[in-house]
Design a protein that fits this description.
By secondary structure, the protein is mainly α. The chain folds into two domains: 89 residues, no CATH class; 103 residues. Helices cover 43% and strands 8% of the residues. The chain has eight helices and four strands, in the order αβαβββαααααα. The strands form two sheets. It has a two-stranded parallel ribbon. A two-stranded antiparallel ribbon has the order 2-3.
């Protein structure tokens, strides 16, 4: 974020706009730069242009939102390298903080089918449901500390698309997700796949020769 760009852009937004300004990946910003938002986050916030000796007040309909992967705590897991810790005083100025968990199977399936309309049939829905069940197992395994890589809804979408290209669900799973995982954890993830699809992958423990 360039400070000079931020001043001009934020000034125009907060003064003239009846819209919401959303900072995506908020925790990727450097804390020394993000201080530019400090006064704006106050309920009666304003923006000061020191070089112009001018104070810009907020439009009463102005709203500011932000998304972040780490809630301002920085990267503690290794999954979100590049994120920064957010100054606690600034974090305290956000009046509402909420979290978004993974979607239900039905909602996630709705999104996947919207992107892959050819699968919007009984057989296709069964296939997509099993994909999401695999993803759900990886998420539970990650929370439990069994694996260090997790499947996002985006991964499911990519897997679904690759399965249509290669006409092989197992192969598509390997090139979409499994190849990104730690070798020591591949047998666990292959087991997740086996539970949902009833077939073994080469990485499955049953296929490992001692």
């Amino acid at each position: 974020m360039r400070l000079i760009f931020s001043k001009l852009y934020i000034c125009l937004i907060i003064y003239y706009s009846f819209v919401a300004l959303v900072f995506d990946e908020y925790d990727a910003g450097r804390s020394d730069v993000m201080f530019v938002l400090q006064r704006i986050l106050e309920s009666d916030g304003f923006f000061t242009l020191l070089d112009k000796n001018k104070v810009v007040k907020q439009n009463k309909y102005f709203r500011l939102f932000a998304t972040a992967n780490t809630i301002g705590l920085g990267d503690t897991s290794g999954l979100y390298t590049g994120t920064q810790q957010i100054n606690q005083a600034q974090l305290d100025r956000w009046e509402i903080v909420t979290s978004l968990n993974y979607l239900s199977l039905e909602k996630e399936m709705e999104i996947v089918l919207a992107k892959n309309k050819k699968l919007n049939n009984p057989k296709g829905k069964e296939k997509v449901a099993n994909m999401i069940k695999v993803a759900t197992l990886t998420r539970k395994g990650f929370i439990a500390g069994d694996i260090s890589t997790v499947m996002s809804p985006r991964t499911v979408l990519n897997w679904c698309g690759n399965s249509e290209i290669f006409k092989d669900i197992g192969y598509a799973f390997r090139i979409t997700f499994l190849n990104k995982c730690d070798d020591a954890e591949k047998n666990i993830i292959a087991e997740y796949y086996q539970r949902c699809f009833g077939e073994d992958l080469p990485e499955s423990m049953i296929n490992i020769q001692i």
